[in-house]
Amino acid sequence: MATLVVHTLEAGRAFLPERLLFNDTTPTNADRAYEFPAHVFHLHHPGKNLRMLWDAGMRSDISTYAPAMQAAFEAYLHPYVREDAPTGLSRNGVTPESIDYIFCSHAHFDHTGDADKFPKAKIVYGAGTQSHVRPAYPIDQGSRYLESLFPEGRTLELAKGDFKPIEGFAPWDTACDFFGDGSLLLIDAPGHMPGHMIALARVEGGYLLLGGDSCHHEAHLKEYVPGGRMGFGMHEDADGVRENISKIVEFAKARGDVRLCLAHVGTYKDWERVVLKEGEGMRL
């Protein structure tokens, strides 16, 4: 069976106020901020000699984001980037020109990076992304998104029909087996926003569940139920988010070979090889 080799980088940091993460905040702590990293996962397919990214982090120059996004930066996000993905990759011997695909879990600023710095990469988005965010800036002056996220001739958006019935991965009925060898299964998982997707990357010993922005705090994996503490200020469809998280938890609990890798949760060493030991079960 084809497997991938996965390493991780950090490409930027930002802040989320507690009131957006939990619904039981008080006036005293509502504006208390949680600092979160933007994890980038480098996927290498040795059998096909392909290099890919799952999410691309933040742009190195924050001023290049749309003015409407700048307003959110000033209000609460306050992002900063010590090192962007192209720089981190290059420092570890991987040139940005060698990246074949960038799979964006969704189109938010901290996941899409700068496509111009990966001139040969195809940029892959989930179904419904462009109809939700385009026209973007500068065509739509009020948009938080950038038209440059979708380079002509290099943008690939999955369609609903690309997600085919798949067995052995309940509770998901369908997935896109992107390379046709089971090494990377893309799963439609809207809720956070239209087009959001997650992935199962097959590695030695099991799977890494690349969860994107399914949630923003480890506690949400236990508190997503109605009446729980989880806040939905960062999500567009609360019911969709609950369904997505419940499926993730159900899948991971049913197996002993899954490690959950969220975009903003967990701690990794620089260029750490992300592995899973057989029987280890879900962990962040």
From TrEMBL:
InterPro entries: MBL_superfamily_lactonases, Metallo-B-lactamas, RibonucZ/Hydroxyglut_hydro. Its cofactor is Zn(2+). The keyword Hydrolase applies. CDD domains: metallo-hydrolase-like_MBL-fold (cd07730). Keywords: Hydrolase, Metal-binding, Zinc. It holds the Pfam family Lactamase_B. GO terms for molecular function: hydrolase activity; metal ion binding. Residues 37-264 form the Metallo-beta-lactamase domain. The keyword Hydrolase applies. Belongs to the metallo-beta-lactamase superfamily. This is (Perigord truffle) hypothetical protein.
